[in-house]
Design a protein that fits this description.
Length: 118
Amino acid sequence: MVIESIGSIKIQVEESTDAPITVEAPGIEGYIIGRSDVSIDYMPDIDLAPFEAQQRGISRRHAALVRRKGQVYVVDLGSMNGTFVNNKRLSSQSAHVLAEGDRLSLANLHMIVTHVRA
């Protein structure tokens, strides 16, 4: 079976000179965003550990990127320290459409969505 490319999303971590995080637009199941934990051998789909995630309050399973009807959404997965889009806290399990230029914050790690193509 051939899986057709469905687009991509790029997120630039503020205060970082690293290249943006780039992933294909999420498919049916989406991507878990969080931090790895070697003590329990856990690795999320998008690992923010290199950006001091634990010190910044990011949960192992903090949020998810999902695609629905041609748009990419972020969903908070019940994180303790919250998920924010443009400084507005999302309710747990609620989906918010992401657009280019949005400021996505997971706890105290701030990122800019630089590209969204679903």
